[in-house]
UniProtKB/TrEMBL annotation:
GO terms for cellular component: chromosome; nucleus. This is Pachytene checkpoint protein 2 homolog. It is found in: Nucleus. It comes from Eleusine coracana subsp. coracana. The lineage of its organism: Eukaryota, Viridiplantae, Streptophyta, Embryophyta, Tracheophyta. PANTHER family: PACHYTENE CHECKPOINT PROTEIN 2 (PTHR45991), PACHYTENE CHECKPOINT PROTEIN 2 HOMOLOG (PTHR45991:SF1). Its main location: nucleus. The gene is gb15281. Gene3D superfamilies: P-loop containing nucleotide triphosphate hydrolases (3.40.50.300). SMART domains: AAA.
């Protein structure tokens, strides 16, 4: 089997009146990574009040970074999304802020936003933070995405014998997946690379790029050891894209295929079940205003290497399943409003024809030291919030520093003072280092299984 290749194209530059793509942005719509505002608002100083040495002229409009601002409405809100978008844009323009991860406080003096908006947040700035970049208000053009969460839950499609559902279906963005994207911690750039790829793939097909010259299957394959969050990452990616593309597609759906329901006890029937399932997916994508995400977990069960069947170690009916799957995926390629998300724990068991069809193949391994620290930090903060764990009686709980701040303080001269925050964070850092043993064990077990 040939070594997996990764394809990651940059999004084409936007029209002259909008900002160019950057390391953390794509043309709007959809801008692909986001940022957030965490600094407290301050009145914008007059130009003449700034010292000459510190004065910096605002960048021209075409030099600004596109930053995605996600605005979640209350479930009871009936306000038009365009009106909320305009109100949030006015609110952001009236403030002098630096853009970093975190929520944007809703102004108490704005009754319209108070009544309709539940949360304003900008995210996905880890690439900027890694490079120690801070974006100031005059460098940024906020791109506001307004959405409401669907509370319907998953719907099921019964199989032929009514014992297992052939797939589960969610209307996106779903309440079940709210906050999932932010809770997943990986190496810097992984989530943004997937987000940029998916946005680029949709943009290429939407603009009518000739598929004979630039071929996009819109298939993502995430592979790695079990338990690293591949399935959750697929669901979170679909949720995030449904928010960013809400202005283009009136409806977004996630279809999670139940591979086990597609195998029949009757010879040659499995391939027909696969074809029948994809026929229903075809009916969904025929509606141009509908964006469909197809999730196939443990895809090796449907796309098993046909060489094993030829050698006699697998039933020959599996060849029909693989053939049906590849044929149906090729048919979906002609529709611009569908993305196929797949995961696998055993990539060597996947048919090479399917692997070649995947545009991007991303390895999702055990968490790095930074990810382990942030995972433990978020867990402790949540337990402190609900009061399950407490600090010493009569003492105020020091804040737990984030990974970057802790590294800076540990290497600074002030670290010798070892205040409460640094001491507590250092203990958590040591715990994150000890967790590496489990990560190495997982890698070893995965290698043995291979």
């Amino acid at each position: 089997m040939s070594a997996p290749m990764e394809i990651s194209f940059s999004v084409p530059p936007p029209p002259p009146e909008s900002a160019p793509a950057s390391l953390a942005s794509t043309p709007a719509p959809p801008p692909v990574p986001a940022a957030a505002v965490s600094c407290s608002p301050q009145p914008q100083p007059e130009p003449q009040s700034q010292p000459a040495a510190a004065a910096v002229a605002p960048s021209p409009a075409d030099d600004r970074f596109h930053i995605s601002v996600e605005v979640l409405l209350h479930s009871t809100s009936v306000a038009r999304h365009e009106e909320v978008q305009a109100a949030v844009e006015r609110m952001l323009e009236a403030r002098s802020l630096s853009y970093v991860d975190g929520p944007v406080p809703i102004p108490t003096g704005d009754p319209f936003l108070i009544e309709n908006v539940k949360r304003i947040q900008i995210c996905d700035t880890d690439e900027w933070v890694e490079n120690h970049k801070v974006l100031l208000f005059w460098q940024v053009k906020p791109v506001v995405h307004v959405f409401q969460l669907s509370e319907d839950g998953p719907g099921e499609e019964p199989s032929e014998d009514d014992t297992l559902s052939s797939f589960n279906e969610w209307a996106l963005p779903a309440k079940e997946f709210d906050g999932l994207w932010e809770s997943l911690l990986y190496e810097v750039g992984l989530k943004q690379r997937l987000l940029r790829y998916a946005a680029s793939a949709l943009l290429f097909t939407e603009r009518g790029v000739d598929p004979c010259l630039v071929s996009w299957n819109r298939i993502i394959l995430l592979h790695g050891p079990p338990g690293t969050g591949k399935t959750s990452l697929c669901k979170a990616l679909a949720q995030k894209l449904s928010i960013r593309f809400k202005s283009r597609y009136s409806m977004c759906q996630l279809v999670e295929v139940n591979a086990h329901s597609l195998f029949s006890k009757w010879f040659s029937e499995s391939g027909k079940l696969v074809a029948k399932l994809f026929q229903k997916i075809h009916e969904m994508v025929e509606e141009e205003s509908n964006l469909v995400f197809v999730l196939i977990d443990e895809v090796e069960s449907l796309a098993a290497a046909r060489q094993a069947a030829i050698s006699g170690s697998e039933p020959s009916d599996s060849i029909r399943v693989v053939n049906a799957l590849l044929t149906q995926m090729d048919k979906l390629k002609s529709w611009p409003n569908v993305i196929i998300l797949t995961t696998s724990n055993i990539t060597t068991a996947i048919d090479i024809a399917f692997v070649d069809r995947a545009d991007i193949k991303a390895y999702v391994g055990p968490p790095t030291l930074q990810a382990r620290y942030e995972i433990l930090r978020s867990c402790i903060q949540e337990l402190l919030r609900v009061g399950i764990i407490t600090y010493r009686q009569g003492c105020s709980m020091p804040c737990i520093l984030n990974y970057s701040t802790l590294k800076e303080k540990k290497h600074s001269l002030d670290a010798a003072e070892s205040d409460g925050a640094v001491h507590l964070s250092s203990l958590l850092y040591e715990a994150a280092e000890l967790c590496e043993v489990n990560s190495k064990t997982a890698d070893l077990l995965f290698a043995v299984n291979q």
